[in-house]
Amino acid sequence: MRILAQTTVLRDAVRKRRGLIAIGFAALLAAVAATGTVKDSSPPPARATIVAPLAVALPERGSEGVHVYWNETRFDRGDTFAALLGRLGVDAADAAKLLKENGGSKPLRSLRPGMTVQAQTSDLGELLALRFVAGDEAKVLGFERDGDRFGVIDQVAEITRQTFVTSGEIRSSLFVAADDAELPDAITMQIADIFSGDIDFHRDLRRGDRFAVVYEAFFYNGRAVRSGRVLAAEFINDKKVVRAIWFADEDGMRGYYAPDGRNLRTAFLRSPLEFSRVTSGFETRFHPILQDWRAHKGVDYSAPAGTRIKATADGTVEVAEEQNGYGNVIVLRHHSGITTLYAHLSGFASGVRKGAHVVQGDVIGYVGATGWATGPHLHYEFRVNNENRDPLAMAIPVAEPVAAHRLAAFRAAADRLAAQLDLAARTNLAASE
User: Fold this and answer.
1) All structural domains of the chain with their residue ranges
2) Dihedral pair phi/psi, residue 410, rounded to 5°
3) Cβ distance 320 to 354 under 8 Å?
């Protein structure tokens, strides 16, 4: 730990810094269709809560008697790096020096809204170190003082994974119940998505409905970095019990299944875009570039450039390249001789390349206007044994269950997770009585 020589003497006029800023991520505001309400004025039931002690470090004392503090805050949407440094108590001169020396560095390029940033400063506000964990990269990025300069920190983060089990009861809405159960919003959104085929969260919620969930979260230095995946979940809606188990097999198939191995997903999404409108259907049309009438063997979706494109089903990337009129194009191969094509992309998502496995809903690319396109849109094709079909008119194929030769492994995993769900449900009932 390096301390500047000029911090050896403290001035009486220097204010003492406030204590450490409270640790933790602010939950992301969710705007999903899971906020249906149930009128009820009853107080929420009692909950069984496990409280873990949180060790808060006292200010360190440098070798010359200078106090050293670790402060942290979240980088918010619309924030500037200078404003962030100001909230962390960094001296204006050091903030200016850091920006001048490292304006285009990897840490600054990698900082995203929602990330928690830690800064180590002296009593005089001199910046000694700054760091944050860069999301999925599991990297610790930041800066460290080296004399009169700031060196870049780029290290592998020692991320730990923990599994949590919790439950809740609906009194007004899913998100209110999840907040009462101290469930991260990202996990609540997954629950709503998992059961969206069985439950209409706008209209079907009832007072007394219950849920239980087993989920994972990732930590760095004892602090939550991000929420992980829902591993198992149960929802009791109007006395009807539905359960979901996450399972990934050695063949690359993965998803949520009922305890009997039935797939909870439809095989294909109706649309590869969340918000769009169809501008050209599966029909004969006048081609705007070739200037003649010809069959249009897909569906065109109008959307702004950069809009995320999702895989409509689990599959394997067969093509991810530039191809003449299609521009940047992706072809996914699915089961039963089905392929889907996504054309005119502005670019491919990270990891999308020939041979890669994708899961329904994964982002595979972004809307663009490459190839023979007059403006940003997505051209989508659905083929069965190389014959084009109208994806807007055809019946959605049934999703595949767990493969027969994987059932034993699935049942073993499902039994373990079901036991955890049972424990969470019993804890919730006992706390409510």
Assistant:
1) 5-39+56-156, 160-265+407-432, 277-389
2) -65, -45
3) yes
